[in-house]
Amino acid sequence: MSRYEDLLASQIRAHGLPEPERQHRFAKELGRDYRLDFAWPERRLAAEVDGGRFVGRATKGFVDARKMPTPYHNTDQDYRKRNLLQLLGWTLLAFPAEMVTSGEAINELALGLERDPLAPLPKNPVWDSRLRRHVASTLERDRQARLVSERKGRSRLQRQKFQAQLAKEQAERAARRAAAEAPPPDVPSDVLRRE
Questions:
Q1: Residue 59 lies in a domain
Q2: pLDDT tens digit string along 33-76?
Q3: How would DSSP label each residue in the chain?
Q4: How far apart are the first and last CA of the chain?
Q5: Is position 136 within any domain?
Q6: Residue 25 falls inside a structural domain
Q7: What is the count of structural domains for the chain?
Q8: Which domain holds residue 98?
Q9: The pLDDT of residue 99
Q10: How far is CA 96 from the centre of its chain?
């Protein structure tokens, strides 16, 4: 278990949501032994936190995925597990560490726990409006983050162009200065004799 899983578990308790089964095993009858970070089997709802990854025997345990140079995890196993969960009729909510720390994960989890697991679409107008507001706020947050990123990228690009132009001008000045200070080239003696 990672610290982000522990943080989400404490948020679940603080919000008074139903207690989940942690490290819930499923699909044993199908010859698989998958575990879910959080599960509410009676609601067929599961939650996975992708902050710390188990990386096997090489590092003996969990590491913070954000501190790793490249994501190291068994993606194929994750896909198989998540697909099988969907095929068994479960709903899976997956959260990166940033969503857990920002509180966005607990909001989505609360919405997931409110819905009727057997209903194909939400029929509750209150739930539907909360879901719409949540999705709209998430989209707005993503749009603002994208704009900030673009602004930073644009200014970085402008800085890089300016620095490249400055370096080019400095190199040209240095070349002119070196040419002006250099002694005249020696004229071969055979050219002087002919004149």
A1: yes
A2: 889 999 998 888 999 998 655 444 334 444 454 444 444 455 77
A3: --HHHHHHHHHHHHTTPPPPEEEEEE-GGGT--EEEEEEEGGGTEEEEE-SEEE--TTTTSEEEGGGSSS--S-HHHHHHHHHHHHHTT-EEEEE-HHHHHHTHHHHHHHHHHHS-TT-SS---HHHHHHHHHHHHHHHHHHHHHHHHHHHHHHHHHHHHHHHHHHHHHHHHHHHHHHHHHSPPPPPPHHHHHH-
A4: 92
A5: no
A6: yes
A7: 1
A8: 3-120
A9: 92
A10: 6
pTM of the model: 0.55
The token pair at 177 is 């200065």
87-91, 104-108, 142-146, 172-176: least confident range: 142-146
Question: In CATH, what number is assigned to the domain containing residue 73?
Answer: 3.40.960.10
For residue 13, give the amino acid letter. R
pLDDT tens, residue by residue, 116-174 = 666 555 455 665 677 667 667 767 777 777 777 776 766 777 778 877 888 898 899 88
Question: Which of 47, 174, 25 has its CA nearest to residue 106?
Answer: 47
Q: Is residue 143 in a domain?
A: no
Cβ pair 34, 46 in contact under 8 A: no
Instruction: Give the pLDDT of residue 87.
Output: 80
